[in-house]
Design a protein that fits this description.
The complex is a heterodimer of chains A (about 110) and B (about 110). Chain A is an all-beta fold. Chain A is built from no helices and 11 strands. Chain B is an all-beta fold and about 110 residues long. Chain B is built from no helices and 11 strands. Classes of the chains: A mainly beta (about 110), B mainly beta (about 110).
Chain lengths: ~110, ~110
Amino acid sequence: EPEVTQTPSHQVTQMGQEVILRCVPISNHLYFYWYRQILGQKVEFLVSFYNNEISEKSEIFDDQFSVERPDGSNFTLKIRSTKLEDSAMYFCASSAGHSSEQYFGPGTRLTVT
Amino acid sequence: GEDVEQSLFLSVREGDSSVINCTYTDSSSTYLYWYKQEPGAGLQLLTYIFSNMDMKQDQRLTVLLNKKDKHLSLRIADTQTGDSAIYFCAETSIYNQGGKLIFGQGTELSVKP
C-alpha cells in the first residue's frame, strides 16, 4: 500500500540554524501539506501546496518557513533560523484531490536546543 | 475561526463499545475525518464522512453525524486492547482554498483487559 515517508525521523538542531525536513508524498497525489504538533497541543495546519505553488498558509507559516518540490518526488519544509518554539512533530500529508482524504507520514520530531 | 473540540480521555473494558465524540463550529464543513495515532507513530486515516450523510459504517467502526448540532461521533464495536490510541477528529470544507484540515485535540482511548 502506498504511503507517505518522511526523513529524518528525529532532528536535533541549535537555535538559529536552518533545517530542512523531507517528505516523499504518495506518487499519484497532487496536493501536499505540512502540519505540526507541539507536544500536548493540537495538530496545526502550516501550509498546502499544489501545482508548484502555495495554495494556503496559516499565520504560523511566516517568512522563516518555505516549502519546495525540488523534483518529481520530494516535498520539503525549510525553517531558516530555528527558534526554541519550533520544537514539534512535523507531519507531511498528501491527497489526490483538493478535498480528498489526506494521508500522513510518520512525522519528523524537531528538537531545537 | 473554525474550531473542533473533543473530550481528552476515554477508558473502556475490552469487548465493550467505545464512543468518541467531537463537536465543530464550521457550518461549511464538507468532510469530517477520524484519524488514529498510536504512540510514536503518525496519523492513520480510519474513516471519513461527507456532510450530506448521517451515518457510515465500516466493519467495527460507525460514524454518526448530526449536522444540525455539529456533532460527530465514532463508535468502535468490540473494542480491543490494540485500539488503545489517540483518536483525532478533523474537518475540512470545499470552500477552504488550500484544503486544510482543522483538528481536535485528540481523545486518548484506554482499553483495559
